[in-house]
Amino acid sequence: MADLPKREVENAEFVFEVMGSQKEGIDAIDLGDALRAMNCNPTLALIEKMGGSKKRGEKKITFEEFLPILSQVKKEKDQGCYEDFIECLKLYDKNENGLMLLAELQHALLALGENLQDDQVEELFTDCMDPEDEDGFIPYSRKS
């Protein structure tokens, strides 16, 4: 079995119960979501390399296959974290007041790096963002 602490294995069991089942596994298209549920931040290329698929129903990943994948992804160094993301957003904070233009964030998500689709960005904004103010600005970080 993978070199994961008992608590991580228990968390992975829970993820599998929510996303599929331990007996039948999860659809390979959901590998990235399962890894993210385990506090990983894999790139799309890494997900594909680890066995993720782009079409539902192509293959399943069993729990026994998932644990070594999780272990390997946790060791990956090429993953950003929350603090890295905030540092990037500070580049758009021209007034250094914790605000950035919503339009700039939308552009970055749609055009830079592993870009999102329009509907994904809209869902993200609806579910996770404070509304923009009358000047089009949003807070980009939680206040401590």
Short description:
The protein is mainly alpha-helical and 144 residues long. Helix content is 49%, strand content 7%.
Q: Using DSSP, what is the number of strands? A: 4
Percent of residues in helices: 40-55%
Q: Number of helical segments?
A: 7
By secondary-structure content and strand pairing, the structural class works out as mainly alpha
In terms of per-residue confidence, which ranges show pLDDT below 50 for 5 or more consecutive residues?
none
Spatial extent as radius of gyration:
18 Å
- Strand line-up of the largest beta sheet: 1-2
Secondary-structure element series: HEHHEHHEHHE
**Major sheet size, sense and barrel closure:** 2 strands, antiparallel
* Basic shape: elongated
Strand content: 5-15%
Average pLDDT over all residues: 88
Give the topology, please.
Blueprint: H1 6-19, E1 26-27, H2 31-37, H3 44-49, E2 60-61, H4 63-75, H5 82-90, E3 99-101, H6 102-111, H7 118-128, E4 137-139
Antiparallel strand pairs: 1-2, 3-4
Task: Walk me through this protein's architecture.
With 144 residues, the protein is mainly alpha-helical. The protein is built from seven helices and four strands; from the N terminus they run αβααβααβααβ. The chain has helices at residues 6-19, 31-37, 44-49, 63-75, 82-90, 102-111, 118-128, and strands at residues 26-27, 60-61, 99-101, 137-139. The strands form two sheets. A two-stranded antiparallel ribbon has the order 1-2. Strands 3-4 form a two-stranded antiparallel ribbon. The termini are far apart. The model has no long low-confidence stretch (mean pLDDT 88).
